[in-house]
Design a protein that fits this description.
Blueprint (H helix, E strand, L loop, with lengths): L48 E6 L2 E8 L15 E8 L1 H9 L4 E4 L6 H13 L17 E7 L2 E7 L7 H5 L5 E7 L6 H8 L3 E5 L21 E2 L3 H8 L4 H9 L4 E5 L5 E5 L4 E5 L12 H14 L4 H15 L12 H7 L7 H4 L29
Helix pairs in contact: 1-7, 5-6, 7-8
Length: about 375
């Protein structure tokens, strides 16, 4: 294995202090031996973050093992409950677990859930929260996910944050990349980061209006890599297949990746004309919550590592496939220990594993032989 050189996680010198963090006993790092991603990402010992994000963090509560949704006037009892950071935290956690140096600007509630989310991200997941805040009197947004029959329904509670994103970010930090949603106009801080040399990655959410306005696509002028899912991509481009949607989007920006769920993904590099396609990892999927974010995190890592387009797509597909084998949303994101162990699990044929040989040089020697998973609940029962 190639030795991955450790480096201290940076805190941007211009960042504003967040105040004292929530207190409590130390949390166990589920990625024991976590190290920054090595010489191939930081050949010159470059300072600063790898990726910066801003957005809303949610408390995700995931009920599993349900036979279906409870009919009106009834109660369903289940023994499956996971709690994990959600929203923008999904991708922040997934990227940090791959060894990327991640900074996040977000508002956290000053309640129990806010304390849990802050400590989980800062202490357990090693995300830099120096640009985040805990506004007094503000309640943490909560999403309840009801998982059944390999699908899910969700209910969300959220109040507008009393502190805006621009106020949180201030002068944007030095970073190699930033990640955002283009559901809204690209923020000024992201444009400033791009002008300074950062690569802008973007996704977008579901259009609840059903209009799928093509005006949204005009925002891609400020984006370098776009990662929509197939339904979104086809709706916005008025095309009938994910492949046609990718071709339509490729004329707007350097790289487009269309996620096809259980059918894999397709990508186009418009600068080189390169086209890549991959199928889904052949694993038993238990919960797809956050899998699209894990895929995006894998693609960000592979891009910063300088891998060819086909390998970027395969690596993203690999980590997303590993994540769906667990219940728990963001805390189902794989660490390098799990990535290393997957090759010995016997879940896939040797000829399939051979396609992922390019991943081996990135596996840290410190990746544990025994994979430690995050505890996806607020407390552990005795």
């Amino acid at each position: 294995m190639t030795r991955i050189v450790p480096a201290q996680r940076p805190h941007p010198p211009e960042a504003h202090p967040p105040g004292p963090p929530p207190s409590g006993p130390p949390l166990t790092d589920p990625c024991e031996g976590r190290e920054p991603a090595g010489e191939r990402l930081h050949p010159d010992g470059s300072p600063g973050l790898d990726v910066f994000l801003a957005g809303q963090v949610f408390m995700d509560m995931i009920f599993t093992g349900l036979p279906g949704l409870p009919p009106p006037g009834t109660e369903v009892v289940t023994d499956g409950l996971g709690s994990a950071p959600g929203g923008v935290a999904n991708i922040a956690v997934a990227m940090s677990r791959l060894g990327l140096r991640v900074g996040l600007a977000a508002a956290f509630g000053d309640d129990l859930f806010g304390s849990y989310l802050w400590r989980t991200l800062a202490e357990q997941e090693d995300v830099d929260l120096s640009r985040s805040r805990r506004p007094a009197g503000w309640s943490t947004p909560v999403t309840v996910s009801l998982a059944y029959d390999a699908d899910r329904s969700m209910v969300t509670y959220a109040r507008p944050a009393p502190v805006g994103e621009d106020e949180l970010v201030g002068a944007p930090p030095r970073a190699r990349a930033c990640f955002l949603d283009v559901d809204r106009p690209v923020p000024a801080w992201a444009r400033r980061m791009r002008a300074a040399g950062a690569t802008v990655f973007a996704d977008l959410g579901w259009d609840h209006t059903g209009a799928w306005s093509t005006d949204v696509l005009d925002r891609l002028d400020d984006v370098d890599v776009f990662l929509p899912n197939a339904v979104e991509a086809m709706a916005y481009t008025r095309t009938g297949t994910p492949e046609d949607a990718a071709r339509a989007l490729a004329g707007r920006l350097p790289v487009v990746v269309v996620k096809r769920g259980s059918c894999g993904a397709v990508a186009i590099d418009s600068a080189t004309g390169e086209y890549a396609e991959t199928g889904a990892l052949p694993v038993r999927a238990l919960d797809a919550t956050g899998a699209g974010d894990v895929f995006a995190a894998g693609f960000v890592f592979a891009t910063l590592a300088g891998l060819p387009l086909a390998e970027r797509l395969k690596f993203a597909n690999l980590v997303a496939g590993l994540s769906v084998r667990h219940y728990s949303g963001s805390l189902g994101s794989p660490c390098w220990g799990e990535i290393a162990a997957f090759g010995e699990s016997g879940e896939v044929p040797e000829e399939v594993l051979a396609e992922y040989a390019f991943v081996v040089p990135f596996i840290p020697e410190a990746a544990p032989d025994t994979v430690v998973r995050a505890e996806p609940t607020l407390r552990k029962e005795p």
